[in-house]
Amino acid sequence: MTFSVVLTSLAAIAAFALAFQVSGLLGRALSAGGMAREAMAVMGDKTLADEEKEARVQKAALGLFGAFFRILLLSVAILIPSVLIVLGADLAGLAPWPAVEDFLLSWEVIIGATVLICALIWWKR
User: Fold this and answer.
1) Do the Cβ atoms of 42 and 61 come closer than 8 Å?
2) DSSP state of 96
3) How far is CA 61 from CA 31, 41, 75, in A?
4) Helix axes 25-44, 50-91, angle to 10 degrees
5) Which of 28, 63, 71, 72 is 20 to 30 A removed from 78 (C-alpha atoms)?
6) pLDDT tens digits, 105-121
7) Residue 34 in contact with residue 24, Cβ under 8 Å?
8) Closest Cα partner for 6 from 78, 117, 86?
9) CB contact burial 61-86 (16+ within 10 A = b; e otherwise)
10) For the segment 49-100, what is each residue's pLDDT rounded down to a tens digit?
11) Burial tier of 8 (Cβ tally within 10 Å: 0-12, 13-18, 19+)
12) pLDDT, tens digit, 9 for 90 and up, residues 37-46
């Protein structure tokens, strides 16, 4: 493992963490979870008529579909800076893509990056 592979990998991880934080993806996902909980509460509400329940649950379903696509697009967008860093390093001859990929997919790096990103998210809250 060369220094340039490790440095490129760390830059890609940092870009991912920054993009994740800036995107607000976590807030959107939590909001979608709230919509689902509200829909479940509506379905269990004995005071509402069936027509009212159906209308509210359909509205929640549309909101959840929209949230799904927003989360999906944000997830792809979050990966773009990291991919560009690795691609740039590969094209510049600094760090071959397969070597960076192998390093990033090692269990040590996955666990370390996950713990670090979770700690940063917890610290920012």
Assistant:
1) no
2) -
3) 13, 13, 21
4) 160
5) 63
6) 999 999 999 999 899 88
7) no
8) 86
9) eebeeebeeebeebeeebeebbeebb
10) 889 989 999 999 999 999 999 999 999 999 999 999 999 999 999 999 999 9
11) buried
12) 999 999 988 8
Q: Which tokens belong to 56?
A: 């509210």
What are the distances in angstroms from CA 118 to CA 62, 64, 82, 85, 123?
30, 25, 18, 22, 8
Residue with tokens 């397969």: 98
- On whether the CB atoms of residues 25 and 75 are closer than 8 A, the answer is yes
Q: What is the largest CA-CA distance in the chain?
A: 67
* Cβ proximity of 16 and 78 under 8 Å: yes
The model's confidence at residue 122, banded by pLDDT at 50, 70 and 90, is confident
Q: What are φ and ψ of residue 45, in 5° steps?
A: -75, 115
Query: Could you tell me the two tokens for 39?
Result: 């829909």
Write out the two tokens for 85. Answer: 């860093």
- Alpha carbon 116 to its chain centroid, in Å, reads 15
Q: Which two tokens stand for residue 21?
A: 């934080």
